[in-house]
Amino acid sequence: MAHDMTATFFPGPTRKTVSSGETPSFLTFHQGREQGLVDKMRHLFSSRLDDVRSAPPSPEYALDIRSLSFSYGRKNVLQDVSLVVRPGQICGLLGPNGSGKSTLFRCCMGFLHPEKGHIHVHGVNIAHMKPSELARHVAYVPQEHKQPFPFVVRDMVLMGRSPHMEGWFRIGRTDRDAAEQAMKRIGITALADTACNQLSGGQRQLVLIARAMAQQTPLILLDEPTSALDFSNQLAVWKVLREVAEQGVAILVCCHDPNHILWFCDTAAVLSGGRIFSSGPVHTTVTEDILQHIYGPECVRISTENMDMVCPRRP
Q1: What is the pLDDT of residues 22-32, one digit of tens each?
Q2: What is the DSSP letter of 111?
Q3: Which terminus of the chain is more exposed, N or C, with fewer CB under 10 A?
Q4: 253 close to 285: Cβ distance less than 8 angstroms
Q5: pLDDT attached to residue 227
Q6: Does 21 map to a domain?
């Protein structure tokens, strides 16, 4: 399906073989507390009931997450998470390792089904969308991606056009132009005929970002998109994201570098212990007190006339 071709595939759950008395655990993927058709239907109908009971979603928000909760087995990962992103804004998602950032992204993409709450994209609950429809609204760049097949870069970027294609991969001129433009914007045109499994980790990440650009959706989710890039490419990617946001696209980006969020984002949300600890305009959300709460007392924010910066406290 188009959705599967434009995002990382997460396989179904694998159970360990356990002896009597042991508690079975899930190794790879889990959709709420249970798995299967019955649980998916329960989630769908509970989402419909939530829609009726809560205030109607506003289409002015590109992404509207309301009271979202999710658990892996008995481990609560997300608890009552609410967050909105408007068109034309970059929202930075910040938080320590294990705070639930990647899980939140996977819920937004429909890879995981939350136990409570719901997610709306431009006023539509994603639980009511087909995967192909969701892929026309949301592009996703995962934190890491291992390419098992030797697709060349141009073909990988073209896969971002699959939600817009009619029939079975009928690639048109519009699709090719969008792919070429995306590669040019990200600066990987010279790699167009190179097999992806011959690229470095940073180069593969640039290919995934270009694929998301070619998808041309009104909402883009990026999970640590610059973590494998050198400093020059980090700045280049953030520049492109700012240009894309100025065209009215909403962007939610998970980032471990608070400086990047301060420098490039409009709003921010701090996730701690599976809950939204703080959210709002970036310069009033990523404060020294909040940074020290999530990272410890060694974290200091320095403000000048032209720039804010987060750095370690001098001994």
Answers
A1: 333 333 333 44
A2: S
A3: C
A4: no
A5: 86
A6: no
Q: How far apart are CA 235 and CA 228, in angstroms?
A: 13
CATH number at residue 131: 3.40.50.300
What are the two backbone dihedrals, phi and then psi, of residue 138, each rounded to the nearest 5 degrees?
Answer: -135, 130
What is the Cα gyration radius of the chain? 20
Cα 15 from Cα 262, distance rounded (Å): 42
Pairwise CA distance, residues 214 & 191, whole Å: 16
Task: Read off the pLDDT of residues 149-174 as tens digits, 9 standing for 90 and up.
Answer: 789 999 999 999 988 886 666 788 99
Amino acid at 215: Q
Number of domains in the chain: 1
Cα 252 from chain centre: 6
- Which domain covers residue 211, as residue numbers? 2-8+28-312
Ramachandran bin of 181, using left for φ above 0, alpha for ψ from -120 to 50, beta for the remaining angles: alpha
226 part of a folded domain: yes
- Predicted local confidence at residue 100, as pLDDT: 92
Is 20 domain-assigned? Answer: no
| Distance set, CA 46 to CA 60, 102, 104, 117 (Å) | 24, 24, 19, 9
Cβ neighbours around 100 below 10 Å, total: 22
Distances (CA, A) of 139 to 4, 96, 111, 222, 262: 11, 24, 13, 8, 24
62 neighbors 127 (Cβ within 8 angstroms): no
Please state, in angstroms and as integers, the Cα–Cα distance from residue 111 to each residue in 12, 105, 172, 250, 309, following that order: 10, 9, 29, 20, 35
Residue indicated by tokens 């190179």: 194
Sign, Cα dihedral of 68, 72, 73, 76 = negative
| Residue 13 domain flag | no
Short-list 144, 140, 186, CA closest to 163:
140
C-alpha torsion angle, residues 266, 307, 256, 99 (rounded to 10)? -60
